Amino acid sequence: MTCTCCNRSVTMIDHGSFNYVDDIGKSVLPTQSAPNEKHPDVKERFYLLPVKFATPFPCGTTPKVSVAIACADQNQSKNFRVYAKAVNVTNTGFNVKYVTWADGDSYGYGALWIATFTPSHC
Q1: Structural domain includes residue 31
Q2: Residue 16: how many CB atoms within 10 A of its CB?
Q3: What is the overall mean pLDDT for the chain?
Q4: How many domains does the chain contain in total?
Q5: What molecular function does GO assign, one term (predicted)?
Q6: Higher pLDDT residue, 1 or 70?
Q7: Fewer CB atoms inside 10 A, N or C side of the chain?
Q8: Could you tell me if 83 and 99 are in contact, meaning their C-beta atoms sit under 8 angstroms apart?
Q9: 45, 101 Cβ separation under 8 angstroms
Q10: Closest CA to 58 of 107, 111, 14, 102
């Protein structure tokens, strides 16, 4: 079955992964900082990785994107504090936001992602 708007398959799926490991032992995160959404007194440090979909999703819509941490290289003398999520999602891509806070110290990381879209009018 295809979408009447764009003549594509009703459900579209794209997926991928990335790994980044710093082989010289220097902290690669964070590159930016901002207050935590739930706890404004806690500063988050984060890295944004741009991801472009292999094929844009149809009709200028926004797919649902899920991100999962696949691996993380952390300073063993610090707390393991990390999460990853999709931000700035469009029909052509998104950013993976990899976050640490407080005394978390990241040297490398990896994540998996999947994006799906089903037109509501199909």
Answers
A1: no
A2: 14
A3: 78
A4: 1
A5: carbohydrate binding
A6: 70
A7: N
A8: yes
A9: yes
A10: 14
Of the candidates 72, 62, 99, the one whose C-alpha atom is nearest the C-alpha of residue 83 is: 99
What's the CATH number where 109 sits? 2.60.40.2080
Of 57, 59, 71, whose CA–CA distance to 115 is shortest? 57
Each residue of 40-82: pLDDT tens digit? 777 777 888 889 999 898 877 899 999 999 888 887 888 888 8
Find, among 70, 56, 50, 68, the residue nearest to 14 by Cα: 56
How many angstroms separate the CA atoms of 15 and 115, rounded?
6
For residue 3, what are its two tokens?
């979408």
Q: What is the pLDDT of residue 29?
A: 47
CA distance 105 to 28: 9
